[in-house]
Amino acid sequence: MNRVIAIDGPSGAGKSTIARLLADALGYQYLDTGALYRAVAISLLRAGLNEDASDSEIASALEDALVSFRGGKVFLNHKDISQEIRSPEASHYASVFSACRAVREFLLDIQREALHHANLVAEGRDMTTVVFPYASGKFYLDASAEERARRRTLELRAKGYDVDEEEMRLDILERDARDSGRDIAPLRKAEDAVLIDSTGLSVEDVFRKILGIIREVSA
What is the rounded end-to-end Cα distance, in angstroms, of the chain? Predict the structure, then answer.
């Protein structure tokens, strides 16, 4: 079986950036699971569903959805939606719908199937606990809510979105509570995952720290 490095953590902790850097350094493929959940959210929103939809309604709507991640791009029914999934709305509803069993079951095989084709660096909310519990390297990347709100605000403003940093902080706290409090695959640190707090650290610092741990274990 191919190898997988799994990274979990809350929104805005820097998982995507670090995962991409690790994938490049290791020669692995980067699996952006958050992008897959955002794609599902867009599909469900287009189907007219919202947070009040039942699991059966969601499962029915997903029967006609084809979500894939190839070459760093996300496709919904063969259309590239890599830019659309980065909107605040897609991010919000990805967290909302991720609590639904039908959504998690829909994406579970899609995520695991990717490991058949390449070594992976996978990041998300339940990579170390549910999707890849057998990962050769497990990490939980965290940061303060204030730090994560600042990063996310700068990122979205750079893309042209008009966002308020305090509103972003409150949204992050709401997402944290929802992600960690759900009954199905809640966000939590796996017992054998290495905790990395990125508050006050540069991207390079975090990257080097995790890469050093991976290489030390491999040696």
Answer: 19
**CA 101 to CA 79: how far, in whole Å?**
25
Half-sphere exposure of 148 (CA within 13 A, CB side): 25
Task: Please give the model's pTM, rounded to 2 decimal places.
Answer: 0.83
Residues linked to residue 196 through DSSP beta bridges, in sequence order: 141
What is the dihedral angle through the alpha carbons of 118, 3, 13, 9, rounded to the nearest 10 degrees? 120
Of 92, 52, 59, 90, give the one whose Cα is nearest residue 74: 90
Question: How far is Cα 177 from Cα 172, in angstroms, rounded to an integer?
Answer: 9
What crossing angle do the helices spanning 33-46 and 88-97 adopt, rounded to 10°? 90
CATH topology of domain 4-218: Rossmann fold (3.40.50)
Domain boundaries, the chain: 4-218
DSSP state of 67: E
Give, in degrees to the nearest 5, the angle at Cα 95 between 90 and 96: 95
Interval 24-39: pLDDT, tens: 999 999 998 888 999 9
pLDDT at 53 over 80: yes
**CA-CA distance, 129 to 146, in Å (whole number)?**
26
Average pLDDT over residues 151-168: 90
**Measured distance CA(196)–CA(149) in Å, rounded:** 18
Q: What are phi and psi of 55, to 5 degrees?
A: -60, -35
Query: What DSSP letter does each residue of 88-102 carry, written as one string?
Result: HHHHHHHHHHTTSHH
